[in-house]
Design brief:
Blueprint: H1 3-21, E1 30-32, H2 34-47, H3 50-60, H4 64-79, E2 84-93, H5 100-104, E3 111-114, H6 118-132, E4 148-161, E5 167-171, E6 183-190, E7 196-201, E8 204-212, E9 217-224, H7 230-241, E10 247-249, E11 256-259, E12 262-269, E13 275-282, E14 284-291, H8 296-299, E15 320-333, E16 337-350, E17 358-366, E18 371-377, E19 383-389
Parallel strand pairs: 2-3, 13-17
Antiparallel strand pairs: 1-19, 2-4, 4-16, 5-6, 6-13, 7-8, 7-10, 8-9, 9-18, 11-12, 12-17, 14-15, 15-16, 18-19
Helix pairs in contact: 1-4, 1-7, 2-3, 2-4
Length: 405
């Protein structure tokens, strides 16, 4: 994908992430992937007409005429990152004939068919979802129905191993919603205080930690002030990823309380390093299902779901309308690494004690209450998955499987 096209697609995906973050229900924990939705909307826009085309273009943030090329480039770029897999699948009912020019615009090897045996067809779709996410998402997020004529699905799978692993510890929060619980905590000392930063956002101060993986994928943990909503913290995280707010890095923070969850002090130390960063966080697994048609304006699907109507004349001669659009996503964070998977599907129906000799400035960062996480490619900073942690793994508990690399 050309530089200009890559930049526009990255901005568009990150923009959809920010808008989705403001609306997603996260009180019980959530994870979602705008990068998993965006290519599907782009290919739909390429074949849409009338008001449906205009709405999809607005939701995408790019003209409908350029959407398919941008989606192909985005999928290719995602697949080129080590540890990141992206796939597109298209299945059509055996009675439907697609327009050749629209079908030719899809990545090669994406098309299959299904008939009236919905049980067998569903098994094939579920197997595709599981295979494309390394088993994290075990089935397609929707069930085939008798009136389904087209199923367009996207799968995103990512895994990374920490350059510096964490040590598992028991973590017992002294206040907040996790007070009284013993959690599977993770501890790590680093000599890179620049990995943490504090920013003032319109909704309050946030502390952000960047944890680099070994393959060009980073995970950002964002803790907001008490009282900030999940949507506000996630939105702040998106702004930090896009460098929309000035950030004071760890090495320039004053002594004392420096930001949410962050304290800076000087301590005697056996190490000559002038600054250290101690991080305590929690292991977590988050799963969520999203009905995209619950907020159709966000995804440009308001008109496209109405019947009667021929909203996709560029896809097939037969009138088509969106009957379902859903996403299932999973994220796991552990001592050795992170992995996540998301499957999005859209169905179209017929229209109708050491010796202390030095002094070290120690930054202590503790995530002991709900916080946001965002995963990105390192360059450009494309948002892959985003979420909110409310239910950490208890201690002792079955350890998370180290992500494959």
């Amino acid at each position: 994908m050309s530089g200009t096209l890559a930049e526009s697609a990255t901005r568009a995906v990150n923009g959809l992430t920010a808008r989705w973050a403001r609306t997603v229900a996260a009180e019980d924990g959530t994870v979602f992937s705008a990068a998993g939705v965006w290519p599907l909307l782009a290919f739909l826009a390429d074949g849409a007409g009338g008001a449906a085309r205009a709405e999809l273009s607005d939701a995408l943030g790019v003209p409908a005429d350029a959407a398919a090329a941008a989606a192909r480039g985005l999928l290719a770029d995602l697949a080129s990152v080590t540890g990141l897999d992206a796939a597109l699948g298209l299945w059509t009912h055996q009675s439907l004939r697609l327009r050749g020019d629209w079908r030719a615009g899809l990545p090669a090897g994406t098309q299959g068919t299904f008939g009236d045996d919905l049980i067998t067809a569903q098994e094939r779709l579920d197997a595709w979802a599981a295979e494309r996410t390394d088993g994290l998402v075990e089935r397609m997020p929707m069930k085939l129905t008798r009136d389904a004529r087209v199923v367009l699905a996207g799968a995103l799978s990512l895994r990374t191993t920490w350059r510096q692993p964490f040590t598992e510890i028991p973590l017992r929060p002294e206040h907040g919603p996790w007070q009284g619980r013993t959690l599977l905590g993770l501890f790590r000392r680093s000599v890179r205080p620049d990995r943490v930063g504090v920013a003032a956002t319109p909704d309050g101060h946030v502390t952000s930690l960047t944890i680099p993986g070994d393959n060009g994928i980073d995970v950002h943990l964002v803790l907001g002030e008490e009282g900030m909503t999940p949507g506000q913290v996630i939105t702040a995280g998106v702004g930090l990823v896009e460098r929309a707010f000035p950030v004071t890095e760890g090495g320039r923070l004053p002594l004392g309380h420096a930001g949410p969850g962050l304290h800076v002090e000087q301590r005697p130390s056996a190490s000559p390093e002038p600054t250290a960063l101690d991080v305590r966080t929690v292991a977590y697994e988050v799963r969520a299902d999203h009905d995209l048609l619950a907020d159709p304006d966000l995804f440009g699907l308001t008109t496209a779901q109405y019947t009667p109507g021929a909203h996709f004349p560029g896809i097939a001669d037969a009138p088509l309308a969106i009957g379902a659009a859903r996403q299932s996503a999973v994220a796991q964070f552990g001592a050795k690494g992170f992995r996540a998977g998301a499957v999005t599907a859209v169905a179209a129906r017929a229209g109708s004690a050491p010796r202390h000799t030095h002094t070290t400035t120690v930054l202590t960062l503790t995530y002991d209450r709900p916080f946001a996480f965002l995963t990105t490619t390192r360059s450009p900073r494309l948002l892959l998955t985003t979420g909110w942690v409310t239910s950490p793994v208890p201690y002792p508990a079955m350890r998370l499987t180290p992500p494959a690399v």
